[in-house]
Amino acid sequence: MAKKILFGNFKGGVGKTTNSVMTAYELARKGHKTLVCDLDPQSNSTQLLRRTYGLQHNDELEINRTMMVAIQEENIRDSIVNIMDNLYLLPSYKDFVNYPDFLEMKFMPNAENFKEKRMAYFGELLKSVENQFEYIIFDVPPTLSIFTDTALYDTDFVIIVLQTQQRSLDGAEAFWEYLQEFYNNHESIDFDIAGVLPVLLKNNSGIDNQIIKDAKDVFGSNMLFNIIVRHMERLKRYDRLGISENGFTEKNDFHDIKLHGLYGRLTEEIIERTGGTNG
């Protein structure tokens, strides 16, 4: 059965999408069949993986059925697209903003346990395909919403992404508290917090070090990942052009080698923290 992992924070712009997609990419490179579920109407994960597909295949990724269409038709399977070996995407689109209204119509407020049914609905559809994958990665908006609750209701592990700035730390604390409240209020769910992933705004910055120290005080040293995602300009190019392994202008580009080496080690730690084994 697939291990399901959610990357989250209540502060936007902290690298949540980048790190969830990079982790999925590295899991696939290590031979683990992985599915990215883009549960964000802004569809940032979808856009990044579409660019990655275009970069690798020199062709445009064809998406005939968005996730919202798949949900309406109760057929997740036919909307899944292949990005590369072992990496698959359940794509989002701007029509996914209609998902809350769809749930409200399907499970009316006078229905028994309607809130639980709304949160559980996507996970029930996902069951038809989840056994085909070793890992499923959820990307969600940085907000308190049915999109986030849907993923939390179905996930096995949560990784809190912490960019080293005060507002991100505040958002991480608020997300942590919400996770505890959500877990306590729903008996049918069972997830663990795999850890807090520090993402540096700048390398060797005093404020970065102070935020990490504060995070250890707040969450406990054992909750922070040993691997820290350091500031790398190449990640910005990935967002714009897609994930590259051989450089944008020449083969064996050392920026790509360094970046994939970092995320390879991070992915190994994620596998360990989620109780898996490296292939």
UniProtKB/TrEMBL annotation:
Gene3D superfamilies assigned to the protein according to its UniProt record, in alphabetical order: P-loop containing nucleotide triphosphate hydrolases
Pfam families in the record: AAA_31 (PF13614)
InterPro entries, per database record: AAA_dom (IPR025669), DNA_Partitioning_ATPase (IPR050678), P-loop_NTPase (IPR027417)
AAA domain boundaries: 3-185
Domain of life: Bacteria
Descriptive protein name: Replication-associated protein
Source organism: Paucilactobacillus wasatchensis
Lineage: Bacteria, Bacillati, Bacillota, Bacilli, Lactobacillales
